[in-house]
Amino acid sequence: MKIGIPRALLYYKNEKFWTTFFDTLGIEYIVGPETTKEIISRGTHLSVDETCLPTKILLGQVDWLIGKCDYVFLPRVEFSHGYGMCTKFLAQTDLVANVFRGRDIKLLFYNIGNKKLLTERKAVLNMGKYLGLKSANVKYAYNVAKQAQQYFEVFRTETQEKTLRETDKIKVLVVAHAYNIGDAYIGRPILRSLAELGAEPIIAEYADAGLCIRASKEVTRTMPWAYNRHLIGAIQLMKDKVDGVVLLTTFPCGPDSMVNELIVREYARLPIIILTIDSQDATAGMETRLESFIDIINFKREGAQ
Question: For residue 113, what pLDDT band results from cuts at 50, 70 and 90?
């Protein structure tokens, strides 16, 4: 048995959990490649025009995995921290099943729905039962994987907090979903450009999720999306610790288009730049905009001295 894991969407949230889980069970897996123009072209060909870039990447990843594995792993998450998710997370399993219905593809998934009925643990146990695995082995693998993910997140958060306290560089909070900031085509070039300009990128996604969700309530009580709450909460927690904010989004993300407007209005005193990545130009021209943005922050710093 070989499991194919698309390098897209929830992968960037749960990589450590998924890989540790399958490693502990001794199940072979293959992860899709880093995002390239070829992957995006595959996904674009399989999508309607209005599909967001991260979903196009997902479809391109699945297309690449077909024929290389026995199952394509596509978990569905409907709720996180008591809040709902963007529809792409609810629909990705059905979307892939329909787009590739004429291809030789088997989907492996679990469904995390109402937190009282479909918990992550129960969903994973159901998946193990579907694969014919012993319940005791699945429970053990789940516990090991959950602990590995928690250790990873705590280490990442503490490392960034240390950097935030100790660095003398310009600190730029990069506000972007995990599947954007971690992507080789979308997020990494932006982080690289900021570093080359002498700034210290601080990743909003790396802030503690529970603290961020609570902090987000100081800004809005009505926002329905858990991942956007995480990002807004990170800004609220670090607004006095950073010199500027980069809002990195992908076209055409509906939730981000509304939330970014809220952020710009709520944090008007902070220098903020919105960067929107599409499937055509990637980061072309972004370096010049970031350079101007860093110059503005420098001028502001010098004026405050």
Answer: confident
What are the beta bridge partners of residue 116? none
55 close to 42: Cβ distance less than 8 angstroms: no
The whole model's pTM is what? 0.93
Per-residue pLDDT tens over the stretch 208-267: 999 999 999 999 999 999 999 999 999 999 999 999 999 999 988 888 999 999 999 999
- Cα angle vertex 282, ends 51, 259, to 5°? 55
Average pLDDT over residues 82-103: 90
Eight-state DSSP code of residue 184? T
Q: How far is it, in rounded angstroms, from Cα 182 to Cα 237?
A: 22
3-state DSSP of the chain = CEEEECCCCCHHHHHHHHHHHHHHHCCEEEECCCCCHHHHHHHHHCCCCCCCHHHHHHHHHHHHHCCCCCEEECCEECEECCEECCHHHHHHHHHHHHHCCCCCCCEECCEECCCCCCCHHHHHHHHHHHCCCCHHHHHHHHHHHHHHHHHHHHHHHHHHHHHHHHCCCEEEEEECCHHHHCCCCCCHHHHHHHHHCCEEEEEHHHCCHHHHHHHHCCCCCCCCEHHHHHHHHHHHHHCCCCCEEEEEEECCCHHHHHHHHHHHHHCCCCCEEEEEECCCCCCCCHHHHHHHHHHHHHHHHHHHC
By C-alpha distance, which of 51, 50, 74, 49 is closest to 61?
74
